[in-house]
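(Fold this chain)
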Amino acid sequence: MVLHRRPGSSLLRTIAPLVALGLGLAYWISHSQNHHDYYTSSFAPYLFSAAETMTDATSSLVVSARQTGTSSPPKVTFGVTNTSPRPVTVLAWESPLDPLALQLGRVAVTPSGGRQPLDFPTVQVRRRMPPGPDDLVTIEPGETAENEVVLREALLPPERLGRRATVVCRGSWAAVWPGLRAADVGEQARAELGANKDAVKGSYESEPLEIEVEVES
């Protein structure tokens, strides 16, 4: 059996998909135009907030270090200053404000003349989720939150440090909530950490601090 195709039928089969595609495109353009304002008003604040937050919330948190004791073991106090015009709440975990900053490896210590930081035993801590309200630190505009770290002899014996050493605190913020105080960060937000819609993450690093170490002769 031989099938005969009508010229008109063949042309119709060729044109029909193009017509359907054109109608679909026209509908999509019309639909997009009708809803353009909606999507702009819905997403623009979020995108602006995210960009502004990443710039302000993380870079406006200035990490400093100062020596607060030369006696063995030496002590270093790390400070986090909020240079933005609004409050910022940070999760202390893994930050310069973490009481376990040294044990977690957030503090690097390099003896004078050394090329690499000293190796010392660090720990991995399993913390209960979500973080509690006491794990959050709110820093008001222009204020500084501090945490004193003892360079424990068990980890960093004076003979390894030498008489002078350089200390740097570096790592990543687990969660930063710009514009919020600790009381405003609920349990759900704490559970989501840096993935929370109101939170951001970022890296931090203090300026190198040269410390003096008392070493027995």
